[in-house]
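User: C-alpha cells in, sequence out, please.
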C-alpha cells in the first residue's frame, strides 16, 4: 500500500511542478501520464548495478535496506480503528527511530568512499546536531502539556478541539523541523545538487537507488500523517482525514 502511495506521490509532485511552470508534466504513458511512475520504476530496476573499485562492501549493500526498514517501522505508529490501545510510548519510539535513521543515511554516504558522498555524510552530522535538540524540546513540551506519550491519548484529547489551536507555534516549528528531517528544499544540504552532484546517494544505481528513493518519499508521507494525528486529531479513516493529509503533502511539494 505504501509503495503505491509513493508511486502516485511522485506523479502528483511532477504534475504540480509542471502546473507551476506552465507546462503539462508527464502525460505520455497511459491516460494523462497515470502510469508514468510505474514506467520510471521499471526503467530504474532494469539499470545495471555498478560495482565500485573501492568501497565498504557490507555497509554499501546493507545501508539502503536498513534505511528502508527504519522508515517502514515508523508506520507502526499511525493509529487506526483496527489497532488496540497498547502502545503507550509511541512518541518516544518516533524520536528514537528518527535519531537512528540519521546513521543509516550517514552509512549510505560514507560506504561508497566518494568525496561527494563523504561531504554529504559530514553535512548530515552537522544537521543532526542542529535540529534534533529543538525537535526534542518541542516533543518534551507536548509530553508535559498532554501528559502522555501515546498517540491514542492525543487523538482522544482532540475530540472537541484540535491541538493546532492550542499549540500553534509548536505545530509550525515541528513542520519546519520535519522539512529538515526529510531534506527538502530549502534544507536540502544533504543532497546539494549544485555542489555535491546528488549527495549521499551519488554512487548508487538500480534497485539500491530505488530503495533510497522510496524511503525518502515514504518519510514525506509519514511526516504528513504524524502532523495530522498530532495536531488535527482523528484516526486515519474518514474522507476529510485524507484531504488534510493531501493538503500537507501539497504544501511540502509547493515549498520545493
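Assistant: Sequence out:
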Amino acid at each position: 500500500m505504501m509503495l503505491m502511495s509513493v508511486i502516485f506521490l511522485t506523479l502528483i509532485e511532477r504534475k504540480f511542478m509542471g502546473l507551476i511552470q506552465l507546462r503539462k508534466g508527464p502525460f505520455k504513458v497511459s491516460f494523462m501520464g497515470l502510469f508514468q511512475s510505474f514506467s520510471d520504476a521499471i526503467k530504474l530496476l532494469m539499470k545495471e548495478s555498478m560495482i565500485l573499485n573501492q568501497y565498504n562492501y557490507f555497509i554499501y549493500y546493507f545501508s539502503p535496506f536498513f534505511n528502508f526498514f527504519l522508515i517502514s517501522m515508523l508506520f507502526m505508529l499511525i493509529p487506526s480503528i483496527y489497532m488496540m490501545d497498547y502502545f503507550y510510548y509511541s512518541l518516544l519510539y518516533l524520536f528514537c527511530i528518527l535519531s537512528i535513521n540519521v546513521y543509516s543515511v550517514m552509512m549510505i554516504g560514507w560506504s561508497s568512499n566518494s568525496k561527494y558522498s563523504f561531504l554529504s555524510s559530514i553535512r548530515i552530522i552537522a544537521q543532526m546536531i542542529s535540529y534534533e535538540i529543538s525537535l526534542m524540546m518541542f516533543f518534551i513540551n507536548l509530553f508535559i502539556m498532554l501528559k502522555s506519550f501515546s498517540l491514542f491519548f492525543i487523538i482522544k484529547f482532540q475530540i472537541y478541539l484540535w491541538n493546532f489551536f492550542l499549540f500553534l507555534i509548536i505545530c509550525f516549528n515541528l513542520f519546519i523541523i520535519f522539512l529538515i528531517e526529510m531534506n527538502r528544499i530549502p534544507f536540502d544540504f544533504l543532497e546539494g545538487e549544485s555542489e555535491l552532484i546528488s549527495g549521499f546517494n551519488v554512487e548508487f544505481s538500480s534497485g539500491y537507488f530505488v530503495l533510497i528513493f522510496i524511503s525518502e518519499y515514504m518519510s514525506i508521507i509519514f511526516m504528513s500523517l504524524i502532523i495530522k494525528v498530532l495536531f488535527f486529531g482523528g484516526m486515519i479513516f474518514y474522507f476529510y482525514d485524507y484531504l488534510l493529509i493531501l493538503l500537507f503533502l501539497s504544501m511540502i511539494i509547493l515549498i520545493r
